[in-house]
Amino acid sequence: MRDIQRRRLMLALPGLVAAPWAAPVHAQQPYPSQPIRIIVPFGPGGSPDQFSRQMGKELSERLHQPIVVENKPGANSMLGTGYVARSVPADGYTILYGTNSGISAARSMVKSLSYDPMADLSGVAMLQDTSFVLVTSSANKGMTLAELIRRIRANPGKVNLAGASVTTTVVAKMMETKGQLNTVYVPYKENSRMLLDLMAGQVLAGFSPIPSAQPLIEQGKVIPLAITGPERVGLLPKTPALSEQLPGVTLTTWTGFFVPSKTPRPIVDFLHRQITEVIKLPELQTSILESGRALTMSPAEVDAFIRKDEPRWTALFREAGIEPQ
Fold this sequence. Notes:
Blueprint: H1 2-18, E1 36-40, H2 47-63, E2 67-71, H3 78-86, E3 94-99, H4 106-109, H5 117-120, E4 121-130, E5 132-137, H6 145-154, E6 160-163, H7 166-179, E7 184-187, H8 191-199, E8 205-209, H9 210-218, E9 222-227, E10 253-260, H10 265-278, H11 282-291, E11 292-294, H12 299-320
Parallel strand pairs: 1-2, 1-3, 6-7, 6-8
Antiparallel strand pairs: 3-10, 4-10, 4-11, 5-8, 5-9
Helix pairs in contact: 7-12
């Protein structure tokens, strides 16, 4: 009897070894066997949307399955993030393009959050750590960061700065507190709307993702004044960091892919391997490095990073004097 059981076990082993990434044993087909959705918690046309679609195209070719990108903007990316955290099956067929605003900074902004970023989401792969660029209209020809600071100090409480993200809100407050500046911050829901108003002269300067602002910079419609990260970036090598004029004013944002926390670990690991290979492609590496730096982490390292990043954002909001709403 024992010999028969042993032979049955040996016959079963090859199938198990051949598909370590397959879906759980009760599933009818191996993963992936149907289209995969990438949820982007920002509006269409922006840099998160463009990057996700580029990623989706390459992943689709590798996985031989359609990748559908869906935009679910709203509430500083928390609408789309909450949708993936609480409203989709944990089967690997819905992936979140996540960022700090909807995950590690969310509980610093909202008192009664509808989801638990730490408990409801699991990391798959980190993508990049990116800077924003502070720009002004080309009508302000010759303006520099130093000139902007002088104008703010000469007109306390009258100069508008704008942005459309949590990171830009915090960095604007950091400019006020660390630089002893008195400005008026104008929050926008969409970065594209902010850039249009900036070019029309309704706000003096605004923070934008670099890929979104770069075409306007090249066309001479906006002027880059400063980078929010700790150092200059490849796409704008002549643009100084904010900290060069305002020591200590440094802030970046990160992006990565996440799934509902109950997604089977073999599927998470499989997605991690595929995404990690795709972002090695030269065109994607160029997109990452032009506005920041690449982040490489295992799924477990992503989760550990988020656990450390949440208290960091809590401290940043506290120092900036921003209370959760």
